[in-house]
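Inverse folding, one chain.
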């Protein structure tokens, strides 16, 4: 039989793992509706409150119910085909047993009647029978052979002990399917407690072992991860302490900066007073932003620390205090949470995002001519005026690294000087609960150019939106950045004997064709219908791009098409433009206009791209080939003797 006893804490804890009360209804756990059930985050709630919470908050996704823990917000998933939503969750036997012990301890505080002889007071408690008994009943316990081995505790001496607590020897759990059978075995295949009859019926042929042996093995496994949990808590303690120390330094540095500003501004004429107030507000805003970031970091560190400390307590309790039945009932959930939390910690950046230094630069030599630009904070952008630039829509493969570059500009529209710690986040617009992509940031090797290179590995397909922040303040993105992620597609060898597919376009209407080798899709311009058709290799139409309006992403008599850098470039002949689309068909932007300038077209037609990132465009009516960058900036031109219709390049591989 297993023993349940409240043991003194070995360490001070931020939270108490064992609590006999449900944290929602604040009632003691008991059967049947107050029975505690364990969520994947290791928090427990009574069945009645849990069913109400699931019914109110759960969302059904792919046949399962998803709901968040009322305490920590972590998601738990249960099958939705069960009539009882709690059926997919394990019972927290440890908590149930502790609640039972607590109820007996509470009874012991007053005068307790004998449970066999109500008219007599109880002087003893039998741990095996879980009963308060009188002197006569205790004598019977000593007389009967079946009861002689029971553990009987005298109440009065126990009450005088500090931190006294009763013990209860719980019998093995009874099987739900075979009511009179005790569950003394553990099915290794299904990972559940089973009885002897179960081994001969529903679990026939399965690997099994005595629960004591399996529990001992699981305890050893949990012991192995305890050092990792302790180490993680220690590291978080260090970085939180450093963050709080740096927060104080920031405040002192801010006061020093304000004093210096005041000293200079007091020597200026009245016209400078207006500028002085502006600098005050800027400085306070920066200080507030830095403190917000540091407080936000400290909050995240403390939040993760609480999760780890709670996990530490739960795991330690499972090792030291759980009975075999209790441990095996929850060990799968405990192990899953240990893996999940330690994995989150391993990806958690412990570097502080701000420092305590606030540099100031005050110019007074040319104050008369530049009063409005007096004073600035080097390396600190003016967030109200900053913008971020980058390619509008990108394509990415799930599980593959995607690299792109962004530029941060200051209030004067110049690349931001100095290193700035950006905060980037890619949010899945289709599934808000999907794991966030891994984003690593590398500042440009060139100094003071405001560039940063982002490396993104997307784990799920879908559409993502970029969010950029500095000190938790969002920046304006000049081009709305989106990224489409789709699963990789294997290349297929061409069968030379396969039938040739017929494209669904009239021969006179087709002017250009391009292929995306990563997906095998064909992009065919349909001149008369003002569209570009996206075709599969078998000729089936996948989608259409464009239209007959010159505005936005629509096309006017499309001619040449080319795929370069995950972008589709289409020559819109009669609107004298080149339009850019993501390979998904989303419009990115356009360049060009009617004319004969270095970045203008007159009925352009064919288009090609070289390995250096240059576009070659047949400028028909201007009798030339224009060479432009991918963004439409002029590079050079080639004059022709006749009006060019198309252009082709020889790719030399060295």
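Residues assigned per position:
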């Amino acid at each position: 039989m297993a023993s349940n006893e409240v043991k003194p804490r070995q360490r001070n804890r931020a939270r108490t793992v064992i609590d006999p009360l449900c944290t929602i209804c604040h009632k003691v756990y008991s059967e049947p509706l107050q029975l505690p059930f364990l969520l994947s985050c290791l928090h427990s709630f009574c069945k009645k409150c849990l069913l109400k919470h699931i019914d109110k908050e759960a969302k059904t996704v792919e046949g399962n119910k998803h709901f968040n823990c009322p305490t920590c917000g972590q998601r738990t998933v249960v099958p939705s085909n069960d009539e009882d939503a709690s059926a997919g969750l394990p019972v927290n036997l440890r908590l149930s047993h502790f609640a039972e012990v607590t109820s007996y301890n509470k009874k012991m505080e007053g005068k307790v009647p004998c449970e066999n002889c109500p008219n007599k007071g109880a002087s003893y408690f039998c741990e095996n029978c879980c009963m308060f008994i009188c002197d006569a009943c205790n004598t019977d316990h000593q007389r009967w052979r079946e009861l002689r081995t029971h553990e009987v505790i005298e109440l009065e001496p126990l009450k005088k002990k500090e931190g006294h607590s009763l013990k209860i020897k719980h019998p093995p759990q009874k099987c739900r399917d075979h009511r009179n059978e005790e569950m003394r075995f553990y099915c290794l295949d299904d990972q559940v407690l089973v009885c002897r009859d179960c081994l001969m019926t529903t679990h026939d042929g399965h690997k099994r072992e005595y629960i004591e042996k399996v529990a001992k093995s699981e305890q050893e496994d949990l012991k192995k991860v305890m050092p990792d949990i302790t180490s993680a808590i220690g590291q978080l303690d260090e970085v939180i302490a450093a963050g709080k120390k740096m927060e104080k330094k920031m405040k002192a540095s801010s006061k020093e900066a304000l004093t210096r500003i005041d000293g200079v501004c007091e020597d200026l004429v009245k016209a400078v007073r207006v500028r002085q107030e502006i600098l005050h507000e800027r400085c306070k805003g920066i200080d507030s932003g830095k403190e917000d970031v540091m407080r936000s970091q400290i909050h995240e560190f403390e939040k993760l620390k609480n999760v780890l400390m709670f996990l530490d307590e739960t795991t330690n309790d499972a090792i030291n205090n759980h009975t075999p039945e209790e441990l095996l009932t929850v060990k799968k959930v405990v192990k899953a949470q240990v893996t999940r939390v330690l994995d989150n910690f391993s990806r958690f950046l412990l570097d502080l995002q701000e420092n305590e230094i606030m540099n100031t630069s005050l110019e007074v030599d040319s104050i008369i001519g530049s009063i409005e630009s007096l004073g600035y904070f080097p390396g600190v952008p003016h967030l109200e005026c900053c913008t971020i630039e980058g390619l509008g829509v990108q394509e990415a493969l799930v599980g593959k690294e995607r690299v792109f570059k962004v530029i941060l500009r200051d209030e004067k529209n110049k690349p931001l000087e100095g290193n700035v710690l950006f905060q980037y986040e890619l949010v899945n617009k289709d599934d808000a609960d999907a794991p966030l992509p891994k984003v690593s940031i590398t500042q440009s090797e060139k100094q003071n150019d405001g560039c940063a290179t982002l490396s993104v590995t997307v784990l799920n397909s879908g559409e993502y939106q970029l969010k950029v922040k500095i000190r938790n303040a969002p920046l304006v993105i000049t081009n709305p950045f989106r990224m489409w992620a789709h699963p990789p597609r294997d290349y297929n060898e061409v069968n030379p004997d396969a039938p040739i597919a017929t494209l669904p376009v009239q021969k006179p209407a087709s002017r250009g064709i391009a292929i995306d080798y990563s997906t095998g899709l064909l992009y065919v311009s349909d001149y008369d219908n003002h569209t570009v058709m996206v075709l599969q290799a078998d000729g089936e139409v996948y989608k259409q791009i464009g239209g007959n309006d010159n505005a936005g992403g629509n096309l006017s008599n499309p001619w040449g098409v080319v795929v370069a850098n995950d972008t589709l470039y289409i020559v819109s002949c009669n609107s004298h433009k080149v339009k850019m689309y993501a390979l998904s068909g989303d419009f990115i932007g356009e360049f060009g206009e009617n004319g004969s300038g270095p970045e203008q077209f007159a009925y352009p037609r064919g288009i090609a791209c070289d390995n250096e990132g240059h576009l070659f465009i047949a400028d028909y009516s201007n009798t030339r080939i224009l060479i432009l960058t991918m963004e439409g900036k002029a590079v050079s031109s080639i004059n022709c003797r006749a009006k060019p219709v198309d252009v082709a390049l020889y790719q030399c591989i060295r």
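Helices lie at 47-57, 93-108, 135-143, 155-160, 196-200, 211-265, 270-320, 324-346. The domain at 507-639 is CATH 2.120.10.30 (Neuraminidase).
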